Structures are given as structure tokens and as C-alpha cells.
Amino acid sequence: MDAQGRGRDEGIDPADQWVLNPDTGDYELRLTPSSGRSSAAAGTTDARTAGPLRRSKPEAKPSGDRASVPGQRGGRRGSGGGRGDRDEPRKAGSRAAAPVAGRRKAKPKKSGKKKALVWTGGVLAFLLVGVGTTGYFVYQHFNANITAVSTDGASTGGFSKDRAINVLVIGTDKRTGAGNEGYGDAGSVGHADTNILFHVSKDRTNATALSIPRDLITDIPDCPTQLENGETKDIPATPGGRFNTSLGQSERTPSCTMRTVTELTGITPDHFMVADFNAVKSLTTAVGGVDVCLAKDIDDKDSHLKLSQGEHTIEGEQALAFLRTRHSVGFGSDLSRIEIQQQFLGSLMRKLKSNDTLTSPSKMWSLAEAATKALTVDEKIGDINQLRKLGMELASVDPKNITFTTVPVLDNPNDKATVILDKSKAPQVFSMMREDVSFTAVEKQEKAEEKAKAEAKLKGEMAAPADVRVDVYNGGAPAGSAQNALDWLQNEKKVLKSTNKANAPENVKKTQLVYGPNQADQARRLADLMGMSASALKPTTTDAGEMEPMKLTLGPDFTEAGSPLSAPTKAPDEIQRVEADKAVCAK
């Protein structure tokens, strides 16, 4: 009899027979012998009852259509000791002693939380994706659930352990699925309705979840796209379009939303994940509901949300209604809806990281089942093992160091239904993410602030903008950058003694300013105006001539004039943000 049969005969959920071994930090399957069989016999003749059964990742997909579940004979372990990037054979003699017949081992106490997190394989704790998977779960079963589509070359090619990770999570407004026909635009092709660029730092100490408003007016670039029928189509650009039309409109796929994000922020995502209405309902039900708080009664006829003031645990249809609510909260705009979505997701993260979730094998199974069925991902993580590895990287961040924020925007003076980029604040936010600067007060940010203060002390006296003489070259920046910088310097900053020298003799890796020792005051002024770090300043060993200009060469890090070339050490004070570990009541 297999593990499923044994569990049913004894009235025990087989998922609950996975027990934490405190000596190894692994969860192991321990099966209590059925009545009528001695523990001695079981311990000598049957591997299923002799002690803990341990799993590792299968080397190939098993044949057959029947999906396996935890407890089947012959499974293999795939956690690699919790690292998620390798499988190691079990050393001889490492088996723990079999449990006493007829007695179940107690569930691990809260002190085993960290080991339980290792066992889960990581939590994909953001937006509508909040669930991790584990190598113990059967490869074939979950792999068959995953839907994957092409990135069409719009990604980095996949995440890496030695650099920051950027995952674009998209919630569509497609109304397919049972019970969704009554939600507004029943004929929607599935636009990019909710969008979060989830950035995890290189050292995995912090993360930023950047919401991109669906109604933001931005340029949607040309999108080479592989269609469902296998054909490739070049979908033309839409200058000044709504961000949400980067998906669905004109047969655009998630790869086009990826390209639009890169165009907007300068950040190329590693991966994407797409969730629809059904994903919200199934995932919130699988996790056992998400805790939310309301500062007032809400009865929204459009989203169908009806909740009283105070705290509630919501799931399924009610969770979907909460995430769709906008007219009854804040200013009644999509920006207000983004804020309550961020509050909801912070609560979801806390629930997923809780001991109640992490130490429940049956709950983790349900979550993994719901997530793999509900999501569409790119082909680079269209394999359950790759998805698990990504989850391991994302799960290491403490919620207190995860910041939700929104792209700074302004009302569009030409169309009240849309918004435009706030160019006084948005470039700073994008720069911080590109340069991997935390939005929370972690050690890395504190060190960056100390460095900035030290650089400020070294600035000394600065020349007046009218006294700065500089030639501007393009050394690898986007086409037209030299003229863009020149116009900004002359018109906005009154650096009138500046000249566009077109392309540099050779490209540079980063923007640099070459100057003579006697031009140090001019160099400090220009660096201050352009937000250049001390490392970008390249003094020569000899003084420059009286009329000789400095040489500013713009590199690939230059995006547009006015955008700092070195990331600020902290976010602008005025931007909206909230940390994932803080419970906030929707107003």
C-alpha cells in the first residue's frame, strides 16, 4: 500500500506525515505502520516503513499520466540541502531512527521556522504570485500545470545568483473563467491592468516592488512577437500610449510589456509572471485567506465589495473584489487602488512567511498547486525546478526590507483619465533601482549615505555655471544624447560655454568627465549639476589651457538630461511607499 492509502486507512493526511529532522534540517516522510503489521517486519523489509523516506529531484520525467503526490515510493529529493541549485546524494549512515510504532512525531515548534523555509523551496512573495514550491513536490505533476510563453528576446536571458533580480508581475483584466463574466469589460483581451516590477538586491537583503499605473502615458516600443500559432509578427510602436495597452492590444504579449518597462525605467526584467482574476481567487483561498483592515465601511457597487470598518480575513471572490476596488477608497482613482493592492500584498507576504503556512505540508501543496495552475510565466522559468530556484532567491528577503512604491506621476493636463511621468522624481526612483540602492534603512543604504557625505566634503568650492566650459561627447549613450545634454545644460542650468562634439573617439563603460587640476572647481560644479559620482571624475596630471574646455563623455548609464548619473542614497521624501511588514488600513 502506498502512502496515500496508508494515510486514508489511519485517518491521517499523508501530507502531515512529513516530519522535520532536527539533525539535518530536512523534512522526511515517516509512515506509521498499519494495524496488523509489526514495526520490526516493516523496518527490515519495506523502505516505506523502515524510516524516513527522503527525496531528490528526478533526473527525468517519469512516464505515465498519473500524477504523484508526497509519499509515493521512489520519489527523489530536490532541495540540495536547501540551496536550490544542486542535488547531492545522501551520505551513508545519515538515516534517522524510525519512529516508535503507532506514534506520530509532533509538528516542529516555531524555532524550526528557518528550516521550514528551506524546505518550502522559497516563497514567490509578491503581487498575485505569493507561493513557493519545493523539490519534494513531484516534478511531473507541477511541471504539467505550468503555462509558459516566449520573452521574444526582451529579457536578460534569466536571473543569476550573483546579481540583482528583476521580475515583472502582471495582473490582467481578462474576464475568462467561471464567475468572471459580470466584471465590467467582459470582452477585454487582457490588458496589463496591474503591474509591479519586483527588484531584489544583489545581496538579497532588500527588495523594491514598483507599481506602474495602468493609465500612465508612455511610449510603447516596437515589439517582435511570437504569436500563439507560432508565427512571428513585428507589432509597431505606439508613441504616447497607455501603459496597459502594452499587453493584449494589437496581439501584444507579455514580452512587449517587458520592453515597455525597459523603455520607461532603463531596467531590463529577467522574467515575467502573469496572473488573471482566477489566480487571485485560487491563491487567496489556498493560503487560507488574507488579513486586511478598513478605516471605514465600504460598499462598492462596481467591485461588489461590501465590508464593514475594521479587520477582516478575505479570500476568493471577496479578495478579488478588494483588489478591484477604487471608487470607494482614497481619491477614487486607479492610484488609490494601487495603494490598497500594495497593502493587500504586504499582508499576503506576512501570511506566507508565517509559521502557520511554512510548517504545513498540506497547505504548501495546495499553494503550489494553485500557483502553477494560475500563472503564465516566461519560458526561462517554465520548468518547476527553475521556478523553485527563483523562489529560493526571492524568499530570503525579510518583509521589513521590502518596500512597495509607485512610479511618481502627475495628472495629465490633456486627459484627466490618464497620468504622465513626474520627471522631477521618477528618474531618481528608477536610478535607485538600477543602481541597486535600497528604499529601506538597511546597512547598505547607511554605507551609501556615509559615502555621499564624504564626497560632499571633498567638493570644496564650485565655479558658477556661467564659468563652466565643457565639450560634450557621445561615448555609448543613446543616439541624440549629446544634444539632449547640451540643451539641458544651456537652457536649464545656464552652462552656456558648452559644445556638442558628437561621437567620442571611443566608447566608455560609464559617463566620465576629464579635466585639468586647475579646472577642479568647474568639474565639481558640473558633477553637482548632473548628479555624477566621484568615480566619474578623471583629473589629468597637467593644467588645462585658459580657454581649454573639459571633456564630458556620455556612456550607457546616461538616459536623459536631468536624470542623476549616480543613484541617490535615499528616495524622494514625497513619493508614496509602504514597507511589507507594516499593516495599514485602507482609507
Question: What are the key terms here?
Answer:
8-stranded mixed β-sheet; 5-stranded mixed β-sheet; alpha/beta; about 575 residues; 25 strands; about 25% helix
Folded structure, characterized:
This protein is of the alpha/beta class and 587 residues long. The chain has 15 helices and 25 strands. The strands form 8 sheets. It has an 8-stranded mixed beta sheet with strand order 3-16-11-4-5-6-17-25, with helices on both faces. Helix 6 (277-286) packs across helix 7. The radius of gyration is 28 Å and the shape is elongated.
Could you say which overall geometry the principal axes of the C-alpha atoms support? elongated
- Taking strands numbered 1, 2, ... along the chain, how are they ordered across the largest sheet? 3-16-11-4-5-6-17-25
- Tally of strands: 25
How far apart, in Å, are the first and last alpha carbons? 56 Å
User: Helix count, per DSSP?
Assistant: 15
- Helix/strand-derived category reads alpha/beta
Gyration radius over CA:
28 Å
Mean pLDDT: 75
Q: How big a fraction of the residues is strand?
A: 15-25%
Q: What is the helix fraction of residues, given as a range?
A: 25-40%
Largest β sheet strand count, sense and barrel closure: 8 strands, mixed
In the predicted model, the low-confidence regions spanning at least 5 consecutive residues are 1-20, 25-29, 31-137
